[in-house]
Structure formats: C-alpha cells, structure tokens
Amino acid sequence: MKKGIQFAVISSILLSGCALDSKINGMIGGLNNLLTTAKLPVTYMRPANQDNTDKIKRIAVITDRSSSNAVNLIESNLSAIRVNDKPYFTFVDQAALDKVIAQQRFNEGDLTNSNNRTRLGKLTGADTLVTALYGSDVETSTYYEERSECVEKGDKWYKCKRSRDVKVRCSEKLAKVILEPKAISVESGEIIFTKRYSQQVSSKVCEGDDPHNSDSALLGQAVSQISEELIQDVAPHSVTKLVELMESDDSDMSDDAEKMLDMGIEFAEKDMPDNACKMFSRAQSIYSESLAINYNNAVCAERAADLELALAYYQKSHNLTMDVDELKYIIEGEQRLLDRNKHNAKLAQNNNHNRL
Question: Residue 314 above 70 pLDDT?
C-alpha cells in the first residue's frame, strides 16, 4: 500500500506540472527506487567453464617474435589467479625458458613439433605448454545523424517553441581484439584446451561531443573482456547472482510477521542483505506458512551456502502456491541448487587433485 500511495503522489505531480523545476530530480530518483525489485546477492564458487583445465598447473608459454602481446595477456591474467589465497597456476620464468630453448638449439620451426615441445616441457618442469596468437585493430568510419535543434526557446528552460532538423557529422571507432590460446599436455602431447576469443568495443562521437577515447584505451577494454572470459574458462571463479525476493503474498500472516517481512525487504533495497535475512528469519519464527517468508529464507540459505536448508525452504514454498509466476521463481531457485551441487562435486575433484 505504501508504494502505491507514493506512486500516486508522484504521478499527480507529473500530470499537474506543479513545481516541476525544483522537484524533477527528486522525482526521478523516487521513480527509480519504486520500480526496483528487492534482490539479494548470492555469491558462490564454480569450477572452470572448460573441462580438463584442472590438469594445467605449471605453464611454459612458448613465444615467437609476433606473440609478445599474447604472452603478456596470458601471463598477467593467469598468474594473478588465486584460489583459497594460493596461486592457481605457476609459470616457468621466461628468461629460464629462453635459455633452455637456446641450449637445445630449438628454433621457432622446431617448436611446432609436438615431440620437441614435450621434451621442452620436461626440461623446464612444466606440465603444460601454451602457445597463442594475438591480433588487434582499430577501424574508424564516418556517418551522419539527424538531430533536432531548438531555434526559439519557450517560456520555461525545458521548453522549446520552435525547432529544426539538422544533420551532424559523426565518427565511430571499432576496436577489435582476437586471442587464440592453445594448451598442450607435456605428458600426453594432447591439446587440453583451445579457443578463439574475440571482442570488440565501439566509440561513437558526433560534432560537439567529447572526443573519442584513445585507441589504446578502447583496445584495453576489449582485452579486459577477453581476460575475464579466459579466467572463467580455465580456473575456478566467484559468481554473484542477484536473486529477486517476494515482497508479499496472500497468506494470513500476523501483523508482526508482516512487519518483519517488510523490514527485510527494506534492508534488501538498501543493500544490507545480512540484516534482511535476519528479519526474514524472525518472520519465519512468528509465522511459518507464508510463501514470501519461506521463499526469501530459501534465498538467504542459498546466500549462506546451506543448500540443504535452502532446498527445504523451496520445497515448502512449492506447497504454498499454485500460481505459475510464483512457481517460476521457486523452480529457478531449485535449479540453482542443482547447478551448485554439480559445481561443488567438480570442485571436490579439483581438491582431490590438490588444486584447491
């Protein structure tokens, strides 16, 4: 009811136009809050997206004259990965690797041979050899946009009495980056992992606008996107999902339970998830037959990584509604639990391999 009253008041102000100059910013902020659904962040670990990458431990990156960017990208990102406060990958020092290559009189052509790469890996202590191709480019194009230009102001600062259409010259920069890494097992000579990454970032600027970002800045954005995808492909990583809460239901909950529920929703809207979950827990102790309270406590249990308790709450929620839209949220929650159990089983395998 409270939100409905606030919305009606704001709507009436918009329609009447009263004191619009001084209140417009406040109204926009209020509308944003009203149209935002309360959510809780649920964070958990999931294994690498690509299979078999748990076999990669100590890496030797094979370079050539044209692959320095690829080497820097791979080493800087993968060497920074830490799981349980420990480096997930280690790298053969590039100077030591170059020395071994020189001593063995390998040239770039020799390193394309799998047997030679396997021998190189054994000499350096690496279990995985990585090669990579890297490419980048920035294209610039020109185009025109039609815009409306005010030629006569109205009686208010935000009003225009007369306008005209004009064409303005614009330009677009398109930065493209491609990375193609390949990881090869020293022991078997098999390809453990290979993938083609491609990202592009655009910048559009018209006459009178601020200038474009530099080419290096645009390429850096594309590289960052590739780096994030690469890390998630080869190593366990943290994932955060914002899960929508239920703000009310049709049950006969007491006033005290409803107050606790409302306080929990308000805490969630203020980005105070721990306090929100405390309120939902109190509401549950007062009234246990509410769909919204049970569902929200299921989300809180997910957040606390108590998957058994979360499943119990979701199952009870399932029995408290026949509404398709409400069941959709519950089914999505149960599916998240199934996915997390699969992830946890895979992470346990990594633990058995002394990776976690």
Answer: yes
Q: Say if strands 160-185 and 39-46 run parallel, antiparallel, or are unpaired.
A: unpaired
User: Mean pLDDT over residues 249-256, rounded?
Assistant: 95
Q: Are residues 127 and 182 in the same domain?
A: yes
Question: What pLDDT score does 64 carry?
Answer: 67
56 pLDDT tier (thresholds 50, 70, 90): very high
* Structural domain span for residue 316: 245-350
CA 352 centroid distance within chain: 28
Whether the pTM exceeds 0.85: the reply is no
Average pLDDT over residues 317-328: 95
β-bridge partners, 139:
174
Number of compact structural domains in the chain:
2
Please check whether residue 145 lies inside any domain of the structure.
no
Sequence-distant (≥ 6) Cβ neighbours of residue 216 within 8 angstroms: none
For residue 255, count other CB atoms closer than 10 A to its CB: 8
Question: Domain check: are 219 and 264 in the same one?
Answer: no
Contacts of 114 (CB under 8 A, 6+ apart): 184, 189
- 314 and 193 in one domain? no
Is there a domain that residue 13 lies in? no
- Checking 52-55 for CB contacts under 8 A at 24+ apart, the result is 52/192, 52/193, 53/183, 53/192, 53/193, 53/233, 53/234, 53/235, 54/349, 54/350, 54/353, 54/355, 55/127, 55/128, 55/185, 55/192
- What one-character-per-residue DSSP string does 45-81 give? EE--SSTTGGG--EEEE---TT-HHHHHHHHHHHTT-
Mean pLDDT for the stretch of residues 99-122: 74
| The domain boundary residue, chosen from 206, 237, 268 | 237
Angle of helix 215-234 relative to helix 68-78, nearest 10 degrees, comes to 50
Q: How far apart are CA 334 and CA 328, in angstroms?
A: 10
* Domain identity same for 173 and 262: no
